[in-house]
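Work Package 3 (structural annotation) set out to generate three-dimensional models for the target panel prioritized at the project kickoff. During this period the team completed the workflow that converts sequence records into discrete structure tokens, so that structures can be stored uniformly alongside our sequence database. As a representative example, we reproduce one entry of 224 residues exactly as it appears in the project archive.
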Amino acid sequence: MTAVRPASRPTARPGVRRTPPLAAAVVVVVGMALSAWGARDRATWFLETMWVLIGLPLVVLAWRRFPLTGLLCGLLAAHALVLAVGGHYTYAEVPAGDWVRDTFGLSRNPYDRFGHLMQGFVPAVLVRELLSRTSPLRGSRWLAPLTVCACLAFSACFELLEWAAAEIGGHGADAFLATQGDVWDTQWDMLCALIGATLSLLLLSRAHDRQLAALESARGVPAA
């Protein structure tokens, strides 16, 4: 009689992590916990960090079917920490921003500007990765401009959210808005996001392409 071999269990393809990078996840969770502890304004903390509260579970749940490149994971973790710091202190009162303002004789705490620069810099890699892997735009000359447009659109939507918060919360939303008396704060925020997205593509596109190719090779996906 021929022995029946037990069915072998499916194994993960070599080179593909079955779980998100543990170090990045731990850093984000610890950063969020420290940010929430003793936050100056609970409502502002929630509004500033809700993207992390939503995004981290989504990345974890979708990882087996859609793992991310190491570059994107690192950038998302860094962005989460920027949001955590801004949520803890409020953007207008971050101590590091006060030091920069006083050292260079600026008229305002610049941490809010840095936050909006990151709002373009990091999402640019996220959008680029999603478009490269789920659309025919991989290698297209339209990939970069459409990525920048998506980041600018997200920045504009965020400004609409701030406007809605101001309408609903009145002066109670001042800490979330962080305008610091600048009537052109909305326009500056969108400009910073535009600059951040453009810089991100100029500096990181080649490295991102290499990581995308390595990820697809490890998953057995034919290169586009």
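Residues 6-14 have pLDDT under 50 and may be disordered.
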